[in-house]
Amino acid sequence: MSRNRPYRHPLGVVMSHRIRNRRVQKAGVAALIAAASAVALTACGSSDSSSDAKGSTSAASSSVTSSKSDDTTIHSQAGKQSTTLSNSAAGTAQATAECQPGTLKAKLDSAGTSQAEMNHRGTFLRVTNTGQETCVISGYAGVALEGAGHTAIKTTARHGDTYFATDPGAHPITLGPGKSAWADLVWTTTGASTAHAKYLQISPTGSNSHSTVAFDQDLDNGTLSLTAWSSKPPINS
């Protein structure tokens, strides 16, 4: 045994290792306890998170239900408005239905016969609603020339401005019972391929239904110019 080294009993070494092992064991137990606590806390936290999620889902469901309810109300109101508009439109359509040929009477208006200038002659066409209901007429009249014995004469009708009047263009004109519309009718008399007319067919709506009036005129090439129907006599100012 050397005097320079301190003496240590073997049991002391053993005791020292035991103490260290106990410390390690205690540290391990403490770590396990801490881990268990963390797991427990995590579990509690998950429970709270799940609860919040359920609450959010419930709120979202409530929001969707409210939205659906609002949509239903909107659609219901829109349906009522559509029904109201449809009824209103139907009433308007009924009040402004197109004039039927059987309720219209066409003739020449003597007020237009003053149109005479530079080999141009003119007169007014006048159509009157003889029915009991208000109706609408628009566009251009149909016209055709007839000779002696009501023989057909080849006729050319030109729509637009005439020598004496500006064409208002096709547009709807509301005619109450007894009310009239006018169009300007003009031709030339230069002697070019003169057509000797005796009658004029006037179809207010351009249909086959027409009135035949006396029209003793000589006109060039069987050609007539006319404006669209107007609510007033078509005289240029």
UniProtKB/TrEMBL annotation:
InterPro entries: DUF4232. Residues 99-229 form the DUF4232 domain. Transmembrane segments: none annotated. Residues 46-96 are annotated as: Disordered. Residues 74-96 have a biased composition (Polar residues). Residues 46-67 have a biased composition (Low complexity). This is DUF4232 domain-containing protein.
